[in-house]
Design a protein that fits this description.
Strand content: 5-15%
Protein name: Polyadenylate-binding protein 2
Low-confidence stretches: 1-26, 28-35, 44-53, 182-220, 222-228, 488-492
GO molecular function, one term: RNA binding
CATH superfamily of one domain: RRM (RNA recognition motif) domain
Mean pLDDT: 77
CATH architecture of one domain: 2-Layer Sandwich
Number of helices: 23
InterPro entries: Nucleotide-bd_a/b_plait_sf, RBD_domain_sf, RRM_dom
Distance between the termini: 53 Å
Largest sheet: 5 strands, mixed
Keywords: Coiled coil, RNA-binding
Helix content: 55-70%
């Protein structure tokens, strides 16, 4: 190790990006009849803008990011030179493959104390696996900048190293991230973004100007969301609107709020919208992982190892903590809200476990499936508990929470039946998919119908326990949602229609892909 290679102190690698996704279609109507779509969009934009720094500050930050990007490339070049990765042109293909393999075994560490030595960094990460090399970046005068590049012998050690994010060395909290090569494309995008007009630049802050580079913008967003900053995209806020609208129309009545009065909504909209949008981003990120369950290979056959690596490391590394930090700062975070956030992380983990098992033809337990479907509506419970806090309520109405919980279960099952074909195509969690694997195609519909019947009995019992006026209002809302969802039935809440089961999901996906090509 050359003496001038010392670590970099300075912080992490921030980026801004967006994720694509579809709005949740069945919880509520797409047409807002409480206030105009223009009003809501204007309010959403305002929320997004106040959540970020001022334009000039962001430009200054991008300038810093350019410098960090240059530092990353300089460090990467040093590592390549030291390892002999750059060889004659005849072996360039092999060299590139070796570089990618090495990068998959490496992490990038920021906020390193200037006085740290490579040996101290190596000792700090030794518990994760065998450290093969530590490179500390210095400036042209040989002074450390605060960044380190840690290469392991084992690929599995990377995930362990990421868990040491925020661990202390020399009294400083280290920032453990994926290695620079995984993120270089995102930085290149930022270099281009800084050359846009101010109007385009402001739009790029919230992500909607980046539609042509889906993967790059996602890596960028992940790295920009550090432990103290929760960031959401404008697109995510727009996509989350259907959930937010349904929440207002279905849950405000349980707080004595009149949803027909805009002031009742806009008073609480900033926190509720930001929270749901942040959760929505994480949920779509988790769903992207479900589409690449086999070493980065998509259910459609393509590979996105880089995207899988980035998303997996972020979604498994306390992803809701930035949001909880904001809520705690606002005096809104309670132990119960914290618990619901943990339920959300548990749901995402279960979703990955079950969908991976489905693709790989592994065993699926009905206990895991039922737990997942009940955890799935955690975002509604977070919003509901937040509304209690925002209103300054002294206690939570447990009867309301219990009733809404069983209602959420029935809505989730209904949505799964409606989205069944799409969920098969995209390898998303779906209770019918799981029941087919557990019970077989012929028995699964009957077993699911039994679950629905038991839940409906409990729903009817709890409905009778509600205040009569509240009960009538909620039933009216359910009838409206059923009609808006396109379900026509003599019964006000609609009827249950279980779709035709798909026995060979892989063949189904291949056929759709063939038909589309």
């Amino acid at each position: 190790m050359e003496e001038e290679e010392h670590e970099v102190y300075g912080g992490e690698i921030p980026d801004v990006g967006e994720m694509d996704g579809d709005a949740e279609p069945h919880r509520g109507s797409a047409d807002v009849d409480i206030f105009t779509s223009a009003q809501l969009e204007e309010q959403v934009v305002l929320i997004a803008l106040v959540s970020f720094q001022e334009l000039d500050e962001m430009k200054e930050r991008l300038k810093e990011m350019e410098e960090e990007s240059a530092a990353l490339r300089e460090m990467q070049a040093k590592v390549e030179k030291e390892m002999g990765a750059v060889q004659d042109t005849a072996s360039s293909d092999a060299s590139q493959a070796n570089k990618e393999e090495t990068d998959s075994r490496s992490v990038f560490v920021g906020n390193v104390d200037y006085a740290c030595t490579p040996e101290e960094v190596q000792q700090h990460f030794q518990s994760c696996g065998t450290v093969n090399r530590v490179t500390i970046l210095t400036d042209k005068f040989g002074q450390p900048k605060g960044f380190a590049y840690v290469e392991f012998l084992e690929t599995d050690a990377v995930q362990e190293a990421l868990l040491l994010n925020e661990s202390e060395l020399h009294g400083r909290q280290l920032k453990a991230r994926l290695s620079p090569a995984f993120l270089d494309d995102a930085y290149q995008h930022h270099l281009v973004a800084t050359k846009q007009e101010d109007s385009d630049f402001q739009q790029s802050l919230v992500g909607s100007a980046l539609r042509s580079c889906n993967q790059t913008k996602e890596y960028s967003l992940l790295q920009s969301c550090n432990e103290s900053t929760a960031m959401v995209e404008l697109d995510s806020m727009q996509m989350a609107n259907s959930t937010l609208e349904d929440f207002c129309r279905s849950y405000f009545m349980f707080h004595g709020l009149d949803v027909s009065k805009p002031q009742s909504i806009f008073k609480y909209l900033p926190i509720l919208s930001f929270t749901e949008s942040y959760i929505y981003q994480l949920d779509k990120m988790n769903e992207k992982l479900l589409q690449t369950p086999n070493n980065g290979k998509s259910v459609f056959g393509e590979k996105d190892e880089r995207g899988t690596h980035v998303s997996a490391s972020y979604i498994s590394n306390d992803p809701v903590r930035p949001l909880m930090t904001i809520l705690e700062h606002k005096g809104l975070l309670t132990d119960r809200i914290r618990e619901e956030f943990r339920h959300g992380e548990e749901y995402w983990a279960l979703e990955r476990k079950l969908c991976y098992a489905l693709i790989n033809k592994e065993e699926i337990l009905v206990e895991d499936v039922m737990k997942a479907i009940r955890l799935k509506s955690f975002d509604y419970r977070v919003l509901n508990l937040l509304l209690y806090q925002l209103r300054g309520a002294k206690k939570v109405e447990e009867l309301h929470m219990e009733f809404l919980s069983i209602s959420e279960f029935l809505v989730e099952v209904s949505d799964d039946l409606y989205d069944y074909e799409d969920d098969v195509l995209e390898n998303n969690f779906n209770i019918l998919r799981m029941f087919i694997r557990i019970y077989g195609a012929s028995t699964a519909p009957a077993m699911l119908a039994k679950c629905i019947s038991e839940a409906e009995d409990k729903y009817e019992s709890l409905l009778k326990s509600l205040d009569p006026q509240l009960s009538l209002s909620y039933q009216k809302r359910c009838a409206e949602a059923t009609k808006e969802g396109g379900k026509v039935s003599e019964h006000p809440l609609g009827t249950w229609n279980i779709p035709t089961v798909i026995q060979d999901e892989e063949l189904y996906r291949l056929k759709l892909k063939s038909d589309a090509s």
